[in-house]
Amino acid sequence: MRRAKIFISMLMVVALLFLAACGSGNTSSGSNGTGSTGSSSGTSSSGNSSSSGNSSSSQEPPYEVVMGYPVLGEVPADIDEVEAAINEITLEKINATVKLSRIPIGQWFQQKNLILASNEKYDLILTDFQSYSAAVAQNQFLELDELLEQYGQDIRAALGANLDVARINGSIYATPVKGFNEAGTALMMRKDLLDKYGIDASSIKGTNDLDAVYATIKANEPDMTVLAPSNSTMPMTSVIDWLNVDMLTDGLGVLPNDATDMKVVNYYELPEYVEALKKLRSWYQAGYIPKDAVNNKANPQDLMRNGDSFSHYEGYTVFLAAQLSATTGRELVSIMMQKPVLTTQNVIGLMWAIPRNNTKNPQKAMEMLNLFYTDKDIINLINYGIEGKHYTKVDDQVIRLNENSGYTMNQAFMFGNRYLTYVLEGEDPALRDEDKVLGESMQRSRALGFLPNLEAVQTEVAAVNNVLEQYRTALETGSVDPDKVHPEFISKLKAAGIDTIIAEKQRQLDEWLAQK
C-alpha cells in the first residue's frame, strides 16, 4: 500500500511539473494507492472467468493487446519470458496475446499524453484519479458499459459497487484496480521504547494522548527524533485525529465527513485545521518535531531502522504493522489516528482504460482486461514471474521469492485484482480476511463517486498550489507560529482564487447530486 501511495504521489508531482512546463516494495501492504473494497474474488482460481472464453473463430488470427503502464525501477530482465507465459494462457482463452508496453516512470506522464493524442496502437492504458476526468472530458477513453456487460462481467463481480465509483456523467470509462484497503491514517511507534518506559499503547485513543507519550520519550531519549516527518506528500496533519474530511481528491475545497449538508468548504479555514496547527506548533517547540522538518528529505523508515526515531505516520492498512516491522527490523505498534473513510480517490486511485483513438479491437481489450481481474495464473505471472524460476511455492497460497531470479516487478498494486496474488512468505494470510472486513465495514463518504474536473479554473489552481507550496509545510510541521502566519496564508489563498475553485467544485457537486 505504501508503495502504491508513493507511486500516486509521484504521478501527481510529475503531472504538476508537466503542467508548469506547459504554462509516487511489492509487499503485503505495498500506497495511491490505493485500494477498493467490497466482496472479493480472492479465492478464485485460474479459469474461473465466466465471460472470457475464446469468443473468436479458431480461423481468426490472434489479436495483440498492447497494454501501457509505467515501471518504477529497472525493467525486469525476464519480462519477455513472463509475457510469453501469459500469452500461452490468453491465446487459449480469448485468442489474443498481450504486449506489455512498459514506460519508465520519469517519462510516463508525457508519454501517456503523447499516446492519447495520437493514433499509436494501445488497447489498454493505466490512468489515475488525477488525470481521469480530464481524459474523459477530452474524449480520450471509450465508454465501457456495454463492453463490461458483454465481455467484462467478472470485473463487475470482483469490484461490486465500487465499479460505479468510476462513473462520469453516467458512464464508466475505466475500471479501478482491486487492491487492498488504505484509508485513514496510523501512527507507527517502536514497541521496545513503549515497553521500556511503561507506556500502554492501548491507552492512546487519539492525538491529545500523545502529549504525555512524547514528553516521556523526549525526556529519556533526548537525541532521538520523536515524530519523524514524511518525505512524501503526506502531511504531518495526518496525526491529527479530529481532522475528518473528504479531500475531494485535491484538498482545494473539502467536504467534512460529519457535516449534515453537502457544502464544500475551505479546508485551511476550518477551526479544526487551525487547532491542528497549534498542536503541531506545541510539539515543535517541545522538540518532538525536528527543527529542520520543513526541509526534510530523510526517509522515516530509514530513521526507524537506524534507531534514530520513535514514531512516524502512514496511511492505515491492516498490513501496516507487520510490513513495516519487517522492513525496519523493529517491532512496531500501529495506532489508528484519522478513521478510515472510503473516498473516490481511494477507489479510483489507479484504473485501466481503453484509449478511444488507439485501440483497434475494444472487444479483445476488454476480454484481456477481464482476465486480469479473474485469472490467478496471469496475475501471479505478471507480479511474481514463473514458478520454480522466479519464486518457489511454500504451499498452495504462499510463495517465497527466489533471490536474483531475474524478475522482480514490485508493482502488484497496479494490475487487476490483487486478491488473486499469492501470499508472500512472512505475511499472515489472516490479514487478507481482516482487510476484507475493514472494506465491508468502512464508512463511505457521502461524495463517493464524485470526481471534480477543475480545468475551468486551472489558472486559480496553479496560483493556489503556489501558495500552498510556500506556506503549508512550514505551518504543518509547526515550524512557524500559526497565530502570525496562518492569517497571511489564508489571505494569499483567497487572493490566488481558492474561493473561485470552491465555488466551481460546489457547482459540480450539486450537479452530481442532482443526477444521482
The percent range for helix content is 40-55%
Total strand segments? 18
**What integer value in Å does the Rg equal?**
23 Å
Largest sheet: 5 strands, mixed
The secondary-structure class comes to: alpha/beta
**Global geometry:** globular
Number of discrete helical segments: 18
Distance between the termini: 31 Å
Instruction: Return the average pLDDT rounded to an integer.
Output: 88
| Widest β-sheet, arrangement of strands | 2-1-3-14-6
Low-confidence stretches: 12-57
- Beta percentage is 5-15%
How are the SSEs placed, and which strands pair?
Elements: H1 2-22, E1 63-71, H2 79-94, E2 96-104, H3 105-116, E3 124-128, H4 132-137, H5 145-151, H6 153-159, E4 167-168, E5 171-172, E6 175-176, E7 185-190, H7 191-196, H8 210-220, E8 225-227, E9 245-246, E10 255-256, H9 271-286, H10 300-305, E11 309-315, H11 320-328, E12 332-336, E13 341-342, H12 344-347, E14 350-353, H13 362-374, H14 376-384, E15 391-393, E16 398-401, E17 423-424, H15 430-441, E18 443-444, H16 458-476, H17 482-496, H18 498-515
Parallel strand pairs: 1-2, 1-3, 8-11, 13-18, 16-17
Antiparallel strand pairs: 3-14, 4-5, 6-14, 7-11, 7-12, 9-10, 15-16
Helix pairs in contact: 1-3, 2-14, 5-6, 6-13, 16-17
Notable traits:
single chain; 516 residues; alpha/beta; five-stranded mixed beta sheet; four-stranded mixed beta sheet; 18 strands; globular
Describe this structure in words.
By secondary structure, this protein is α/β, with parallel strands linked by helices. The chain has 18 helices and 18 strands. It has helices at residues 2-22, 79-94, 105-116, 132-137, 145-151, 153-159, 191-196, 210-220, 271-286, 300-305, 320-328, 344-347, 362-374, 376-384, 430-441, 458-476, 482-496, 498-515, and strands spanning 63-71, 96-104, 124-128, 167-168, 171-172, 175-176, 185-190, 225-227, 245-246, 255-256, 309-315, 332-336, 341-342, 350-353, 391-393, 398-401, 423-424, 443-444. A hairpin with a 2-residue loop joins β4 and β5 (171-172).
